[in-house]
């Protein structure tokens, strides 16, 4: 049996490297303005983007250090040392007090921007949780509770953000409104299916196509238990997000600098070079993790039956409707479902992981990125008497893979272009 784990890990690493701020940011940065460069960054790659921006402006363009200011709010454990841009580590996926203060300071700095300044907004996935600024009449605890309810509901990220945008003073174009006197340039690394600018970090500097009515409909659709204050906020016309034509966007520019598709292509090239035929399922997959795993297992078993050597690759962002009380994330749940469906099938190995280095989890920098499975997994399952279905029923993929030794532990990667899933059929 050939060990495919080094190749699986190399495919994942290639996808991550293609989207790292050190690689993708500097080519898109603007020249020095007459005034200050005010850098406001949010998300899991925010600190890495801030470091790359400092290197560009301070070292390459020799900007006077006093003219570069900013705040980068990132997930706990994803910080880096910076020179001029302050790094704030904050809660994710459930926001915390550090994110609350970071967002207030960010809004204040945006409001200080003058006509000659450049407001440089750097976004990666995770920004929605990092920048937390509840609308008037809502407490921080109520906003946290809504976030938890949304995350457990199984709603896709676009729907989650629709609700969050209408309960926020920074999302849905409102950061642009705060800083509209300056030129605003937003450079974003996409972590959302189909790269919708209004969904990345909940679109703080772009028009929002969703409405308060959409948000109310989602609360009803998922039967979310929310406080009356939340319902009142979603009925208040003052909390409508910024729409196309708003003066906030008169001097605002938005550019994508890394996409999930490009990262998937980097992994595909490596798989091709290793001699595999490719089944490319696209970079925008959504759906319940265990259901998607069932579809992919069928493809793998069919290829195996036909004697084909294929690599089945996909990106996107799967969801988990939480019914149990275990730990895990969509990638681990997908891998666990695969393990049950492919049990004892030789010649098939797989990896499913989040490119930010943390799949679900409790917001710790040591959370697993995902998991790998192969013949050694099936052997361990048998020797330890592990029933994948029982763990799946309890949404407890982390415990299952901790027992088999198959968790993928990468630590923070400092970027985020969603999930990478690979099944190798030999």
What does this structure look like?
There is one protein chain. The model has no long low-confidence stretch (mean pLDDT 95). The chain has 16 helices and twelve strands. It is of the alpha/beta class and 426 residues long. The chain folds into two domains: 5-13 and 261-425, glycerate kinase, domain 1 (3-Layer(aba) Sandwich); 21-133 and 168-207 and 242-258, Rossmann fold (3-Layer(aba) Sandwich), CATH 3.40.50. 39% of the residues lie in helices and 16% in strands. It starts with a helix and ends with a strand. The strands form two sheets. It has a six-stranded parallel beta sheet with strand order 3-2-1-4-5-6, with helices on both faces. A six-stranded mixed beta sheet has the order 7-8-12-9-10-11, with helices on both faces. Helix 7 crosses helix 9, helix 12 runs parallel beside helix 13 (330-342) and helix 13 crosses helix 16. Keywords: ATP-binding, Kinase, Nucleotide-binding, Transferase. It comes from Bradyrhizobium canariense.
């Amino acid at each position: 049996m050939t060990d495919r784990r080094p190749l699986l890990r190399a495919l994942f690493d290639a996808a991550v490297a293609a989207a790292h701020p050190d690689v993708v940011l500097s080519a898109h940065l603007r020249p020095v303005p007459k005034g200050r460069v005010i850098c406001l960054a949010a998300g899991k790659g925010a600190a890495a983007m801030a470091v790359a921006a400092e290197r560009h402006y301070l070292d390459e363009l020799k900007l006077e250090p006093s003219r570069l200011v900013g705040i980068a709010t990132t997930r706990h454990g994803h910080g880096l040392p910076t020179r001029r841009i302050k790094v704030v580590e904050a809660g994710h996926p459930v926001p915390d007090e550090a994110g609350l203060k970071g967002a207030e300071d960010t809004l204040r700095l945006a409001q200080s921007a003058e006509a000659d300044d450049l407001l440089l907004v750097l976004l990666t996935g995770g920004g929605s949780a990092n920048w937390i600024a509840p609308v008037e009449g809502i407490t921080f605890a109520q906003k946290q509770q809504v976030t938890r309810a949304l995350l457990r509901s199984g709603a896709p990220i676009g729907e989650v953000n629709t609700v969050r945008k209408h309960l926020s003073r920074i999302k849905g174009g409102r950061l642009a409104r705060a800083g509209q006197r300056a030129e605003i340039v937003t450079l974003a690394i996409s972590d959302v299916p189909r790269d919708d600018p209004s969904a990345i970090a909940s679109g703080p500097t772009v028009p929002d196509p969703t409405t308060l009515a959409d948000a109310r409909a989602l609360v009803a659709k998922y039967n979310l238990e929310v406080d009356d204050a939340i319902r009142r906020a979603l009925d208040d016309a003052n909390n409508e997000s910024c729409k196309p034509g708003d003066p906030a966007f008169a001097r605002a520019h938005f550019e994508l600098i890394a996409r999930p598709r490009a990262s998937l292509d980097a992994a595909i090239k490596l798989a091709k070079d290793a001699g595999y035929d490719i089944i490319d399922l696209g970079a925008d997959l959504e759906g319940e993790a265990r259901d998607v795993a069932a579809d992919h297992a069928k493809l793998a078993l069919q290829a195996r039956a036909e004697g084909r050597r294929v690599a089945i690759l996909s990106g996107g962002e799967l969801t988990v409707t939480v019914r149990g009380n275990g730990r895990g994330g969509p990638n681990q749940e997908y891998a666990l479902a695969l393990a049950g469906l492919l049990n004892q099938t030789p010649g098939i190995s797989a990896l499913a992981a989040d490119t930010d280095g943390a799949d679900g989890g409790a917001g710790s920098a040591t959370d697993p990125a995902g998991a790998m499975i192969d013949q050694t997994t099936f052997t361990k399952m048998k020797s330890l008497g592990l029933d994948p279905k029982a763990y799946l029923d309890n949404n407890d993929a982390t415990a299952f893979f901790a027992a088999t030794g198959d968790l993928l532990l990468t630590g923070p990667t400092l970027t985020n272009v969603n999930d990478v899933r690979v099944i190798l059929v030999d």
